[in-house]
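The authors assume throughout that readers already know how a fold can be written as C-alpha cells. A single example would do more here than another paragraph of explanation. An entry of this sort, consisting of the sequence and the corresponding C-alpha cells, reads as follows:
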Amino acid sequence: MIRFRVSARFLGLGCVGASYREVLGPDILLQKRGDLPYIPGSSFKGALRSAASRVAGSYGFTACGQIRPEKMQPCDVCMLFGMPADYPSLMVEDLLPTSDPVRVTVTRVKINDSSLKAEEGALYTQEHVLGGEFQGRILVLRPERRLLGLLLLSLAELRSGRTGRDSIVDLKIGETGELRREIEEKYVRLERELEDWLWEGVLGEGGR
C-alpha cells in the first residue's frame, strides 16, 4: 500500500454541497462534520476519477467514460478507481480543514437548462467557504506502477478544473516518499511539481 497526503484549497468561493437542508438556513449548505466544512473523500475521488477520464487517452491510458455502474467496462481508469462489486484499488480520506474557513452566503439565480435564461423568481441561496485549506490522505491499496502515472496526471488535471458545485481548487501532495519510490522515472518531475501549489502568488491573497 502507498499513502501520501493531499492538500486542497478553493480559489475564491468554494462549495461541496450537502444533500440536506436546514429550515432557516441557505438552500444549499456546505458539507459539515460537526460545524466545520470539509470535503468528503468520496466527492474528491469522484472529481479525480472524472479528471482521469479526461486525460487518459492523451497519455496512452484507456477510459470507458461511463459513470453508470452497469455500463462500466474494464479500462485503466476503472482499474485504478474501482468498479462495482470489486475491491477498490484507491481510497481517499475526507479532507478536513486546517482551520475554520471564512463562510459566506451568496444569492444566485436559477438558469433554465433549455433556454439558458434566468427563471423568473427562481432565486436560491448557497453557502460557500472563501479560500481555506483542507487535508486528507490518498491510499493506493493495490499499486500498479503504470497506473500511478495516471493518478499523478489526474491530480494535475484536477487543479486546473472544477470540483463540487463549480468550485475551482488548487492542490498539492506531500509525504510522498512511498509514492516516489514506485512511480516510473518519466513521472518524477510531475510528482515534484505537484508538491507545490500551482496558483501560489498568482491570484493574491483573495485566492487563498
